[in-house]
């Protein structure tokens, strides 16, 4: 906290001084504290462990919001720190959801099928079980054979591995191809968007093996825990999401405040110069791209069991754009900015679109927020881009009396390695 | 039966052609001779009578047959005389067999002759010959149509009789063609059929294909020895040509082997024989395995408790003992061979035409992408500004067209108003957006992308609020309806043709604007070096504003033309935005020819992939995007890359 009160011009000396990780990154402590308080409050207010001051569905909404915050953190690293505006990270998020969804759906259906078969006179054969599961899951797309990509769906550890491997490998292949041929800037954005669109169109097909536009459903029911009520499950998932978010925040803030973070920021600010200095820029970018994709996959794997359903519309290109919108509104280039943006905008969004926001009568026309929220969001996004590139995070600077630094290369905000002047005020 | 009918038909053909005029009997006389048969006709006996009537040469014959078939022939009860009837208020107006009117009779005085369906069929067949020679060409053409729709043996004979006296050359050609088509299917002489098939030469008409295909129909049979005398299309190898399961199913349906027991039946049979937790000595708990179940069933079989079912061994033996053949239903091998080679020849020709049709489809799709992308080629390609709201400008143009059609009557007039108005509206929107937002972000391309996304989201929702979520029609005028059809395979709708023309017009306009006008010169100057252009007295702000407005305006016009064939919804534009960017990026940024090449490649490619996998346009788009991502690897700057100073970075 000492550093935040100091004049930013003298800050570099303190950053270089080995005065402890938390001292250099005061936001980490505040963030963890806030998250712990939130978790405690939600637990105590939840119907499962406390007074029931909030409903189960609200616990789920909060849990999902934490997962979105995790995805936003990843997006902040890849965009705010490294300068790669990826419009494909929600695709990785959804892929993670699909991978865990496969196991949830398969194992749960198998349970149900087994129950119904056990009632028969003979014990069921493996073939009968597979056929029962197949027709239960794929009857809706007119099939009963279990496609090859469900080959690991019977095993939780394997599908958990796939949660990491599938988004990771896709990001690796795509990133390797893109970075290798020096696709940068807006071209890369468009290319990632095309990748997302291709993936979503592919999953929309019925013969993609993932139930076409029906998607995977019933994910809120955990196999083997049929008699545990959703009240408890929602809190458990909230804990898991909070834990994951905290771990990711710690990991990422360690990464960006170290040497690696300096290289990443250098790549963002002047890629060519970093390359001339001898750094393997493509390697760094690929690493960041893959790690953030994996993080998004994990976030998705935590999100969709709370949402209960996943379908290809979830990875439409617009979803990834919203992710960028959250990060931008929260304030990119600082980790807490991404978290605040994702939480603020997504909660506000569900408040507005849920029909709970009061309509504004204008005499001749009544502004119904269900219809006009997107307009407001779109326009406020334009406004933030134009006039407040620091986003909500900029408010913290204002509180602490920090000003935009007057020399290129100075950090913004209290943490080492936050957004820099060249990005923020150009 | 067919041979008999054919003989019959030939017989009365002969009568018509040669005997008829000589033995010119009157209808009245024939009716008098065969009165009994006519009153109580049966399919077996009436043939010669109808043939006599048809061959009589009496003009009354056709009227009589028509009346008879239409249940309008009657016998007067008082004297047994036969009359043609016409319904009348008082009963029936009578016409005698010489064609003279014979007054009116009450319903009660007349017995109406009602031939059964079989006889009516024969009458109708005989009548075809009359209609084919009817003095009215329209009736003759209609008769030909009905024969073409339902070809049969009788029609062949009638057709052959009706070609000699045909005067209309077009109808004669149709008659001759139809005659040959019927010959190749129904003529009793294989040589005549082969000759008819070969006579068509390189013809690839739909009717010829329809006539040839049934000749090659096959049935699948199983036989212990190779069937003698059958016209075998091919013999099948179990495993490659048909699966063992299908082969055995064929044996079962032909009665040559007992059916296999299904898994479900086996399970029920086993369940029915559970005794003390065991089935035939196998404990219940072990029956969760197919091999064990088979073993238990075999044990039950041996004990005679269940009907025996074919085991895998028996199935294999039965399959090995039989040969499986596809046999032509057409018995004559020369005919099938001729039909096969003719169809192969046709298939080649049809494939070539399909390729041509496909290229036309690809071309029209390319034109659409080009139209959608050309505005983007200006804003992104020339100015380097990413406008993600470009798709919404396209939608805006389409909605402008819709609104104009609500106000201006007449589709042609409204289109003429809509095009310039759409340009004006989107030009204004583009200029407004440039002034308010993009101007401030010229040095921050990533943020331009985001800000225009914000505008895109807002605009899309505003469209939804104003026009609702349902599709709004933008109707094309009648002269754009229909399609230009070159033959049965190659055709293209006029709307698509118009879009291709429009795309070419825009290409010309753009080239003229950029290379031949002052504005184009200034745009190019500002693009290359704004500071230098400014020092030469060009106002870069104004040029940027105009260029952006122009790009947006063209998007509006593209919107009207796309709206003419696609449904206008608030998501119309966003369906095209990614493809449009792909078009520009693949083609090469900053070059109109690049956009053209990109559109051509993407349009052609998408159609080609759709052709390979026609059921699935989603997959086609997926593969196309993957292809583009890979393509960018090899030509990161697009098909037509700018070189030197113009390339910038």
TrEMBL record, chain A:
Q: How does it sit in the membrane?
A: Multi-pass membrane protein
Region: Disordered; residue ranges are 405-426
Note the coiled coil stretches, chain numbering: none
Q: Which domain of life is it from?
A: Bacteria
Where are its TM segments located?
A: 28-49, 87-106, 159-179, 186-204, 236-258, 283-303, 309-328, 335-352, 372-389
Task: Name the keywords, alphabetized.
Answer: Cell membrane, Membrane, Transmembrane, Transmembrane helix
Among the entry's GO cellular component annotations, what is one? plasma membrane
User: InterPro entries from the entry?
Assistant: ABC_transp_permease (IPR001851), ABC_transptr_urea_perm_UrtC (IPR017778), LivM-like (IPR043428)
Instruction: Drop me one GO molecular function for this one.
Output: branched-chain amino acid transmembrane transporter activity
Q: Main subcellular localization, coarse class?
A: membrane
Q: Where in the cell is it found?
A: Cell membrane
Name of this protein: Urea ABC transporter permease subunit UrtC
- Source species: Gemmobacter lanyuensis
TrEMBL record, chain B:
Q: Source organism's superkingdom?
A: Bacteria
Segments traversing the membrane:
363-386, 417-437, 494-514, 545-565, 577-605, 617-634
**Pfam families, alphabetically?**
BPD_transp_2 (PF02653)
The region annotated as signal peptide is 1-24
Q: Matching CDD domains, A to Z? A: TM_PBP1_LivH_like
Per the UniProt entry, what are the Gene Ontology biological process annotations, in alphabetical order?
Answer: amino acid transport
- Tell me the GO molecular function terms: transmembrane transporter activity
Question: Where located?
Answer: Cell membrane
Q: Is Nucleotide-binding set as a keyword in this record?
A: no
Entry annotated with the keyword Cell division: no
Main location, first listed in the record: membrane
Query: What's in the GO CC field?
Result: plasma membrane
Topology of this chain in the membrane: Multi-pass membrane protein
Supply the alphabetized keyword list: Amino-acid transport, Cell membrane, Membrane, Signal, Transmembrane, Transmembrane helix, Transport
NCBIfam families in the record: urea_trans_UrtB
To which protein family does this belong? Belongs to the binding-protein-dependent transport system permease family. LivHM subfamily.
**Mind telling me which PANTHER family this protein's record contains?**
ABC TRANSPORTER PERMEASE PROTEIN (PTHR11795:SF447), BRANCHED-CHAIN AMINO ACID TRANSPORT SYSTEM PERMEASE PROTEIN LIVH (PTHR11795)
Name of the protein in question:
Branched-chain amino acid ABC transporter permease
The record lists the organism as: Gemmobacter lanyuensis
